[in-house]
UniProtKB/TrEMBL annotation:
It comes from the Eukaryota. InterPro entries: STL-like. Pfam families: STELLO. Keywords: Membrane, Transmembrane, Transmembrane helix. This is Glycosyltransferase STELLO1. Residues 1-26 are annotated as: Disordered. Residues 9-24 have a biased composition (Low complexity). The lineage of its organism: Eukaryota, Viridiplantae, Streptophyta, Embryophyta, Tracheophyta. The chain crosses the membrane at residues 48-67.
Amino acid sequence: MLVQDRATPKSSKPSSPALILPSSHHGDHRRFVPAKSLDFSTWAFDNLYKILAVCFLAATVAALFFLRSAGDTAALLCFDKTRSASSSSGGGIPYPRISWNSVPPIKPLDPSASPYASFRSDRWIVVSVSTYPTDSLRALARTKGWQLLAVGNSATPSDWSLKGAIFLSLDQQARLGFRTVEYLPYNSYVRKSIGYLYAIQHGAKVIFDADDRAEVVGGDLGKHFDLDLVGEAAAPKHPILLQYSHADPNRTVVNPYVHFGQRSVWPRGLPLENVGEVEREAFYTEVFSGRQFIQQGLSNGLPDVDSVFYFTRKSSGLESFDIRFDDDAPKVALPQGMMVPVNSFNTIFHSQAFWGLMLPVSISSMASDVLRGYWAQRILWEIGGFAAVYPPTIHRVDKAQLYPFTEEKDLHVSVGRLIKFLVSWRSKKQTLFEKILHLSYVMAEEGFWTEQDLQFTVAWLQDLLAIGYQQPRLMSLELDRPRAKIGHGDTQEFIPKKLPSVHLGVEEVGTVTLEIGNLMRWRKYFGNVVLIMYCGGPVDRTALEWRLLYGRIFKTVIILSEQRNPDLTVEYGQLAEAYKYLPKVFKKFQGAEGFLFLQDDMVLNYWNLLQADKEKLWITDKVPESWVSVSTEGKTSDWHVNQATLVNQIVDKFPVHFQTSYKQSTTEGRLIICGSEIFYVPQRFVGDFIDLVEIIGDQSIHHKVAVPMIFLAMDAPENFDSSALATVVYKAGLSANDSFTSYYTANVPAIYPLKVHHEYDFVKLIRVMASGDPLLQELV
């Protein structure tokens, strides 16, 4: 609560029995007048203001006494009433306010209560333990120059002990006095947050966030990470770092495993739509070392991979991974605007980034450290810091344990949207902790975590201040300054090795396989094409699957549906007027080569489109079942007549070049109808498409009528790349007994129709499509 000065109430005296009046001008003595006889009601009325004043003072004293006895957290945290009132009316979350200068200190335990009360160390290794010490943990405890801190939970044996380690049991954690304790689940590794605070309180300058299965390669962390960043002594050691190029401002996340020789492996927390980005960097830039306050190391053996990778790359459940990264590849930094997944078992945090160690508590455990990593990277930019990725620093043995997909749902559903949100987020707050609190608040409002994590952030920041942590100073955000142009002399080249990996449960020998090579060719061709997909089926069951299928190939996958779902990044759109939603997407991705529209009941065999001309329009004008010319004279339905009338009215409003092109390609008295389940608009026609949609305005021209009209207005059919979609299999009027597998073929660019309503339909689709793209087998 904001602390205010207390007013000391003045002592009150009993009222006089008589009223003393001044001397009379006519007499030389004082005259005493008896007091008026008052009943209680009259007295109360005459002294009302005095009564109210006394009551107010009494209430103030009582309130201050209550707040003092209610605990520091309640006394220091209050809610902005004005904002709360406005928020509550809209269902918002109250914004916390903290009196930063009034947080009382938390001192270490008395030496009588803990033998380590006065112990201090600059370098700490923090792990969570649930079982008795492993051999890997014993090795960590022997790491020279580092103090191992083991944080227990409800599953930890009560007699846990390890020579060389400090162990914090649940009971000891509760006695430390940290506010964060009350928010932590009992049986979870996120209790490491207590360990971080303990290490900071006991002198930490560097913290290695580790796993009890981690074996440090060579036993020396100093050989792998940059531990001395401040001062002249550090300059000769690592003055320059390679850095990913910021040339593409739309590139906001990167798979670092490609840089270190593993193109077909991706880290946990990488959006699934980005797993197909396997090309090496065209070039790198450079950045001065010294501000890589978060350093992410790689793990040989079992890297940090998600459940999708873990289960699709194994030929048997008993098989163990032993994946190796390039030890000689240079460490690489991330520029502002670009992020990388960061985990909690092989990461160095320097003191300037200690605030970023907080592990969220309201989301699934497999998502907590990854979400923390993205959150921390965004805040890191506010102090001029950055994250960097380092060659293999540890080895982890794969125990062939389950990786529950359900525990990663928070990643696969929202991580792509989170990254875009973080890059665009701005705050005008004046201190680092105020910015952290603001970001945590907005993330709660956006649904990336809950109000519980907002309150946890409040407790975390207060605990940091209470143990003496000093906030780093803010710096101007590079993202908001014009980026320097990258000249030829500013670029650096590095060609990653192609190391043996695993693919479909089979080891790759020496080089990337033919299938991976095909994937790279498809990705190279479509990598700057945006896929706009309309989903008529239930998006909560299929949106992730569609992104997983096509996100490997295309720049991004935009999903439209009548079932808007912000958590799945599904935008609202009606199929009858789907074309009207496209200009918004066009404007968002102005750097894309083109845009491919696809309905979910048409399957795309992308491998058969590599010869298509991306500078021309594609549509099914050569597929007679899809492109139909209907007479609007004689016995014609009212719908056709109405649509034809609207088309004529709109065409008459077209500028002359559009109007001429359309009329030269059509016959009077006939209406062109196209299924329009699939079509392609290159970037050079995007402006025309937008202009034509604006002319249509709010006229109710159906998607099947508007799209062919727009295409014929933009260009003559002989200029289309009609051969691109000429061989599409288009089966209209099928019976319910007709099976999709009976007419599917991998030798055409697309097949219609197919209904995908749930995961089982998707699995059947993937199995038949794998005849054209064998890599799809890893998805099922």
